[in-house]
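Notes from the 1:1 (GR / supervisor)

We went over the backlog. Supervisor wanted to see one worked example end to end before approving the batch request, so GR pasted a single chain during the call. The sequence is below; no edits were made to it. Supervisor asked that the structure be written out right there so they could see what the output format looks like.
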Amino acid sequence: MYLFFSIVAALFGLVLGSFFNVLIYRLPRRESIVRPGSHCPNCGRPVRPWENIPVASYVVLRGKCAGCGWNIPLRYPLVEAFTGAAALVWYAGTIAPSLEAGLSPVIAVTLALQTAVLLAMIPVAVIDFTHLVIPESITLPLLALAVIVSFLPRGLTPLQCGLGVLVGAGFLYSAGILGKIAFRKKETMGFGDVELLAMVGAAFGPKIAFLTILFGTFAGLGGAIFMAMLGKLGKNHVMPFGPFLGMGLWIAVLAGNRVVDFYFAIVDNLVR
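Structure output shown during the call:
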């Protein structure tokens, strides 16, 4: 059964990744995600169902539109494959063990919400990286849903939800204000990042929100150093923070406790 549900999780992720590609293309352009149906951005030809199979269709079509021969961006199969892999990792690392331990209906709802938030980081990261914007149409509905779920008994409490929002959004908002003062009114933090952390804090609580900021900041610093070494980090260059926050959240939920324990073990050894 474990193998069967692992395959189901991966296939679910692949299909969800295909939908994420729709969000990534249409949300920044303020287009409907429902109509028209999937079509080639170059010639407008509708995509047939057999041409829309995640990853496989890209391989069969050799990365080209069946109508006009337009080169389909490699981003499409990569998003699908990455989402499939992420869904599989999350299932194997969290959902499967939780199912074995026994889940109450409320915990199942909370886990489903957290799954949605985690996977939503994928389109958020790509959109922010390419357009420097985090769509509220993704973050705000999930934030509202997390607040509602917190009022269910025996799950994440409203207090934990509120503290998560305060720690995540409050910390990042304060950092943005301080950065604006330090850099003479130049915006250093977009409000989309604040809403993103509010969503994370509401769904996971204050500890994960804090670790997301911590790991995301280190990841962003590493990215900035790497770009500087390549000579691509100019004076007026704007780096999106959303992809690094997404990375920080995944590290926090999958390995946060182990990373923190490892850090304090090193510190303890150095002190001795």
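Supervisor's comment: Residues 1-102 form one domain.
Batch request approved.
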